[in-house]
Amino acid sequence: MTEKPNINSIKTEYTNKEIVGYSLSGVADTLSYQMFSFYIFNYYIAVKQLPVLWIIIGFMIWTVWNAINDPLIGILSDRSTSKYGRRRPFIVLGLLPLIAIIILLWTPFGNQIGQYIYFIIIILAFDTFYTLYSVNQVSLFPEMFQNLDQRAKANNYRQIFNIIGLLFAAIIPTLFVPTSVEPGTEAGYFIGSIIMAILAAVFGLLFVKFGLRERVEYSKDPLKAPSFKDSIKFTLKNKAFRSYVVVNLCVWYIFGLVPIINPYYARFILGVEGGFGASIYLAILFISAMVFTIPWSKIFAKYGPRKAEIYAIICLIFAMSPFLFMLGPILAIFTYIIGGFGFAGIMFGRDILMSTVIDTDEIDVGLRREASYYGVNALIIRFSTIAVYLSVFFIFWGIGWGVIYDPSNYTPQTDIGIFILIYFLPVIAMMIGLLAISRFPVTKERYDEMQKELDRIHDEKAKMVDLDEYNQIL
Whole-model pTM above 0.85? Predict the structure, then answer.
């Protein structure tokens, strides 16, 4: 008769090697989505010269598709009873086509109408396979790492590799594009995308081989998973989740807006010509954020996710202030370093907060539904992309770039528009985020109480799984 394990016979902590293996997943995830986010808008309006309004409409169609695609993939994953685990099949199914689509994003053909149709089809395909990969790999974080100390430690590695992905996305395409916002540079984007696809393949496959781990305690949860309708209802009823998604929507709005506007800020405010020069400043921001991840991990472990996120948002508001001053190319380096400190805090807080949300759901519902939450979250944060592009559209329209981007049409209003986009709108978003996180119901004291209850629940679940099934999942 097969021995029934208790919680002590099941692995509850992972080695540094396994943590690094899992963290590699973030490179493929981040570089693919951020390359899309950083460059797709500028590429199609400035390089391919498609009307801005067309692109806005295209992204509205993309958002409707997300409303179906993102939650559905999350719920299907949580309901999966595959012998290979809940997440692994979806991760592999998403990763391989995603690698090819990273290249195909930059190969539109035909006349203007044909290129526009291609644009819509390829961004829908990108989102489908990206979601298959991303929702499932991020769902492993709260599953693998069970308490605040484990999550703070693992998130150090995770955010470092995420930032490496950001650096790849920010810099590699500009190595081949002399000026990132001018027509005639299609070949540079294509070459850059090939390199990005290779990097996504390498890091993604290394993650699948060395870092993809699923916990046996939750292998029975899919048998009790709620229906699609009930899953959405349970997710949206969660007070902690409702607070979190507002914060995360604001965070992703800033993540999307600042990199898009950075080339314009560098060119018109700092006087830096060329895409590579602009990307160096973005790299400084991300590298400093990588360094500042370490102190932020200690802040989150000490004060808990709610209070630490409040500190992070306040720090970012002040850290963005130097962007208001026309300091010149040299002094601007310090502006980006200071900005990196603020960015590090809100980057670190995303998955710590979401993991806490999922913990509250397990106590309420009795099941682990990571992918359902990340799927709905993926849908909601897509609205940040729409908000970014609408912000750019209306400000560009106000400064005379509403139909076609024309850098020769420079007026005093150009600087004002850029300052609004790089500072004032992000600060407004952070003020909204600050109000939302103040309503997050899980304090540090409540978190510690929840951990005891979760340990009991996991112990009970472990008793229901035999060792043979455990070995199959691994």
Answer: no
